[in-house]
Amino acid sequence: MYPVEQQIYGPILMEKWGEVEAARKLHRSLKPLMLATWVALPLKKGKPFLRPDELVKREVGLVRSASEDNVCCWDPRHLVMADDPARDAILLNFLLRQFVEYGCRVVPVASLRESYSRLSVMAEHSKRAGSGIAIRLKLEDLEEYDLLDTLLDSTGLTSADCMLLIDLGQREFAEHDEFAAALIRWVDALHERGNWAKIVVAATSYPLKNPAPDNGEVSRPRAEWLVWKWALELDPDFGNRATFGDFGADCEVKDFGSGGIPIPHIRYALENAWRIVRGIDFPSMRNVMRRAATAPQFMGRAFSAGDEFIADCASGVTENCGSASHWRFANMNHHITLALTALAQIYGVGIIERVAHNHEQPSLIGI
User: Fold this and answer.
1) Cβ proximity of 268 and 336 under 8 Å
2) What is the dihedral of CA 225, 70, 332, 75, to 10 degrees?
């Protein structure tokens, strides 16, 4: 199994430009602390399957750009590369070999009910490259111990060759203390079943629909983080048996082809909440950035590359405020930095303070 001991944060991220750029521009002291799971996007409907070289450019290129040579997970659940399962498995094997060729330390992700053709390819890759595999468990899978044992038996892998990715998805946490106690029981029960290399618990309570009104703002709790902190209150050693993870803004979206006009907004993560600041159209994003950057909760231009982008848009340093992909980059780079900074404090890990780029920046006073 690739080394996964030092990573303290396991977000589940889409292979969209904004999230890839957010990871690419993380401060150098933070990158080795993150064990990201990159979820490959499906091919566009009605389009022909990609050639092998096109798949390499799309998948290996994105992951290499985002994670460099740091260990990460790669989840191809949505990426069907051929109609024929045998051909799809051949292409999966080719891609996994290309990840190694280009210096990407990728742990492939399999579901508990993964097809035999794909699972066998992932298992052989694990043995060949020493990568291990990640087994993704949904909430309804957490007590399917027989299926977990069958997966290990069928692949010839041991629990030490595998990490578990508990994907709780998008949900409301009505009772933080009760859910935290249940989470501890689930994780401990899984540890009793094997010597897993790592267990990551990922969830999000961010609403599927943008909750802010036009030209308004709203706050929503980061309930998954509150549950995690409550679990640490109940059992201070829990953080040594499981790793916190969360999601980007829309990692639970199932309809990838829905399209639509992006909503102009900034989703700014705070210690225990999100502050969502919304505009009405693309030109209104300058004012959105100003409202975000002049709020007392703003953490400063030097906090992250995302904060620097927000501040520069607000002050007029940038010619415009970019596209929805740029807003996603700012949201996620700030979010990941905040999560890693908070977790580093919990685990006693030292990080280097970021220094912002210098610009001839107009003052925000009076804006």
Assistant:
1) no
2) -80
